[in-house]
Amino acid sequence: MNKKKMNEKSISKKNMIRGCLFFIIIAGSIMIWQRYTSHKIQQNKIQQNLKNNLIRFHVRANSDSRFDQACKLKVRDAVIGKVSQMMDGADTKEEAFYILKIQKNRIKNTAQEILKKEGVKQKVTVHFVQEKFPEKSYGQYTFPEGIYDALRIDLGEAKGHNWWCVMFPDLCVTKDDKVRINNTARKKMEKLLGRKAVEKITKEKYLGWLFEA
Asked: What angle do CA 72, 49, 76 make, to 5 degrees?
């Protein structure tokens, strides 16, 4: 075999390898895009499901001073302590909202009592709002970023760092950043969202969708 034919065969082989690699890259890209698109559609459905069935809790501190932030956490603990008892009687988001609206003044008074004990004269306002929450993890559960219905408490100028949680079902963090996730809350979530949705927000986030069957 002369040198010219050997070169042609080598070039042909290289072109074949390049073609195969190109095909593999294109096929892989299409597969990843399809999985990503499917994941986004699922995520949007889950987020809408969460929005329709959950109530978030949002506390805004007067400022970022250590004292104001400490007061925010004390208000948080006191309000959660009261509200958790109220939520035991709610099986749906509508029932939970009804209870919260009836108890709005009691919630406000609870916050005011804490501030009074701390010698603080700050205005306390309680709002029922729809607002954007960032992606947040509570123990084994990760809730996606999105617009949620929420109970929000503003302390004073409400210009300090925020604190968020899921008020209904009760997944709020209180002491030492430990999550009080009991069987009742889990069962309520499965009843409201469906077992598959609860499994989805329990799984590892980020690129977990890429390896789903």
From this structure: 10
Residue 139 Rama label (left phi>0; alpha psi -120 to 50; beta): left
C-alpha span between 41 and 47 (Å, rounded): 10
Query: Which position has the higher pLDDT, 85 or 99?
Result: 99
Spell 175-202 as b/e; 16+ CB within 10 A means b.
eeeebebeeebbebbeebbeeebbebbe
Quick one: pLDDT at residue 90? 85
Contact in structure between 88 and 135 (CB atoms under 8 Å): no
Predicted TM-score of the model (pTM)? 0.69
Q: Is the pLDDT reported for residue 175 higher than 80?
A: no
Crossing angle (nearest 10°) for helices 93-102 and 66-87: 120
CA angle centred on 191, ends 185 and 196, rounded to 5°: 100
- Band (pLDDT 50/70/90 cuts) for residue 192 is confident
207 versus 149: the higher-pLDDT residue is 149
Distance from CA of residue 90 to its chain's centroid?
21
Q: Using CA atoms, how far apart are residues 111 and 128, in angstroms rounded to an integer? A: 16
In tens, the pLDDT along 6-30 reads: 565 666 666 677 777 777 777 677 6
Neighbours of 101 (CB within 10 A): 12
